[in-house]
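Supplementary Text 2. Reproducibility record for the structural model of the 311-residue chain.

All settings were left at their defaults, and a single model was retained for analysis rather than an ensemble. We include the record here because the model underlies the residue-level annotations in Supplementary Table 4.
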Amino acid sequence: YRFGSVNPDKWMVFGAHFDIAPPVNGGMLDPHLFGRTYGTRVGAYDNTAGTSMVLSVAEAMASYETRNTMVFCLWSGEEGGKRGSDFWTDYWVKEDNPEVEVTNYVNLDMAGVNWPGGGGAPCGNGHGGGDGDCDPQPEIDPDGYPKDDEVWPMRVYIGPSLDHDVMNQPEMVGLAMWIGSDAIGVEEQMSPLLGTGYDAETWKVDDWLAKDRPEIIVYEDTTARSDHATFQDNLGTVTMGFGGLVDGYWCYHQTCDTIDEMVDWMDTTGKDYGEERSGTSNLVDALDTITWWATYSFFHLDEQPIRNSYL
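Retained model, structure tokens:
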């Protein structure tokens, strides 16, 4: 906590879950050799990357005076049902500190396997599970999150939203788009997604394809799956979150979810995609982009919090 100088009872919260998907097999089998099971004891992508960014932002902003109180949180129990953030919002905020308003929440979960990486899953050197000693390629899932075997979008997701075809939180969407264009400089890669004219189950992929597969997508998510859902449901807070590939990363919730694996996935050398850059360079760039984007958002939300348009 760093209490605000003007409105100490208005809290801006920045968070990520630090727990990992628990292993369900005693042998901790490598999916590259034995096929997919479930669980890991590393969790670099899900969600050490997110916790590292929260700690980096907290350290950088610790000396800044803000109008509102800054709260940096690492949640437990997300994989088992968002239990840590659920308890914190329901009991610590609503019961123990009823005078507090959580103005906005920024969530970091599963980031780093996304643009500027892409162009195909890694092959050889211990990879496999797919054709040609390669990890299986991400495939288009019509009712999932946008991605294919070449483009792995960086995602900026906003809520709450009950309608896939209406922009329900236009102020937060506008802020995300403005920061992305003006401060981050990714206007050429970025596009908002909206489901007008599309089916409720497939709208994200439909609009992504219609807009020629943008590498950064900003959208309102009607199916929140991480700790931001807790803030929306329990407190009515408007949230912004950042992430990358969800169901297209072969090592998601697997023993191979390591930093080395992320570096291999992010390597674009020798690919007909992006710039000729190492996996380490692209990974650092991806995490830096998200960290700065989230930090700029925090500064703007301190000056002008964005309230829930439903309330």
